[in-house]
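Session log. Operator J.P. requested a structure for one protein chain; no other inputs attached. Running the standard single-chain path with token output.
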Amino acid sequence: MPPTLPQGDPVPDDGALPASAGGPTDRAFGVYLHVPFCTVRCGYCDFNTYTATELGGGASQDAYATTALAEVALAATVLDDAGVPARPVQTVFVGGGTPTVLPVGDLVRMLDGLRTTWGLAPGAEVTTEANPDSVTPQSLAALAAGGFTRVSFGMQSAVPHVLATLERTHDPRRIPDVVRWAREAGLAVSLDLIYGTPGESLDDWRTSVEAALATGVDHVSAYALVVEQGTRMAVQVRRGELTLPDEDDQAAKYELVDDLLTAAGLHWYEVSNWARTPADACRHNLAYWRGDDWWGIGPGAHSHVGGVRWWNVKHPRAYADRLAAGLSPAAGREVLDADTVELERVMLGVRLAEGLLVSDVPAAGRPAVASLVADGLLDARAAIRGTRDDGVREPRVVLTRRGRLLADAVVRALVG
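Structure written below.
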């Protein structure tokens, strides 16, 4: 089952934000749009997704676009009433689930709703996730014609037995085709990979990375498999049917993907993400890591505006019912205090290749910088020669590759 939502504080039925969220801001504004439907549930997945069997006769995929647009209308009212300045949407990310199980017309209709409500900034990045077996040349062309600019394919692996363990249904031989179709439609393309699947060898992983590179994509995400409680794979591990790799295996696979992608001209810009140029980086995800504002549309979606974070009810039926009754679908929220903001700024900022100004590190953690450099976890050159955004030279905290492997330990040291 999908993970349990946090508790948080209650949210007014109308979704009204506290006064602290309003006022002038220079933060960018993005929209995440969650499509909670999949044709099958993969054994490792703990996302808030549902198959038709799991939903039964409840929430309808056919009505989903209309339901999501009801939350868009609510969002516009809530932001206006809170005095949050109207801003065009800089980035849109449609995730899931498998968004492309919906008709292209529904995806475009939801995007049109955002355009009508807030406007899209010039050059806005509009991404949808997709499974390789859920698109055609025609559907990708229709997405591009409807305003989408980017597609992120869940490739995961190029090795059949690894895909079988993950319970992925697509044929890996289809990957070059879908990348070509997307590019012919004018879409930027990212491929998502997973390493550390039980039974995956280092050679298997090399095969997958090389297959991704052979398509010529300009963006690759590579994530270590995390087996979450409540998933089918967690049960298989507990029963001894699957054996998870150890930390050394995970580290070797991270180093291999970094070596191969860097040699091919893709450079890391976040611990798990590589892009050919800065323009190829995922701007929507960068907005998360930099603490910008976003509204999350859909069941279980999380939002952040002006230091307030909230999350929607999890089940599609409950989500639809609340909106149909004119109520906010928010299930809980929290107002971030100064300590939490500081912690998250370090925790997220240090994961980026641009790093973090030493002056942004909590005072209690600054003495640790020198020892982290000595331990090879921070880049000494960046720590000495960093530059502020305004051109004034100031040291920065930037992870080495070894530091990327131990990023959590680095964060703990920096927050004192």
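Operator note: The chain has 16 helices and 14 strands.
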